[in-house]
Amino acid sequence: MQTIAPPRPAPSRAPGPLPHFADILRSESCKLRTVRSTFWAVAAVVVFNVATAAVLGALLPAHMSAHEKATIDSIRVSLGGLHLSQVVVGLLGVLVVSSEYGTGMIRATLAAVPQRRLMLAAKTTVFTAVALVTGIASCFAAYYAFQVFLPAGDSMRTTLSEPGVLRAVTGAGLYLTVLGVFGLGLGAVVRSSAGAIAVLLGVLFVPSILVSLLPQSWQDTIGAYLPMNAGDTIYSVHHQAHTLQPWTGLGVLSLYAVIPLTAGFFLISHRDA
After folding, report:
1. Which among 236, 256, 267, 241 has a CA at the least distance from the CA of 76?
2. What is the rounded average pLDDT of the residues 64-72?
């Protein structure tokens, strides 16, 4: 008698790359939002931007002449808190990667996600989304806080419909995001929180100090392409001499961020955890 073997079950297919990446995104999102440093960093960015704008709007006009008010870039003034919040966002970007290396948790992460570059891509995506939302929201909040605290009828009042204003406020949020990604890339390369933070602050601030010691002609030529000088043109309404155009400047800053991030994607597959 001939027996008919039961049909074999079809082999289960491994999940495709997109569902797997979605799972990694959820994991990285959970890690980022459950760490206290994320909450305090986001809160610090909002407080620095909004509080600085409110104080400047309430106190600065009384100490300025009519000519100064007519010539000053009031949008740049309202975004004065970026001088503090930019450091916070950069540090948070570093910690997103380096903190796991410091605690040794990176071994558990890589055991769960052997595709190292996919893991780093998920970290970058989640952090970029958080930095973008926080940066743009806090910059718009700062702009409106400045307008609210200005005296009634003050000549420094503006609206978002005026030329360059919307671009400057939105660009300030993009500026913070790029700085954060710059920090994340450095964290992926250096893998030490202290070392990456030192490199971040050194790259942002030291070149400007050194260039200021050079002859004026050299300052005019080189200074525009330094990270800070190039990036902050995006949140200026009045273009200054010897500086890049707003979007060009943000593009140059983005190149500074892309270099360590690309190096991080290369090195993460060629080094031990």
Report:
1. 236
2. 86
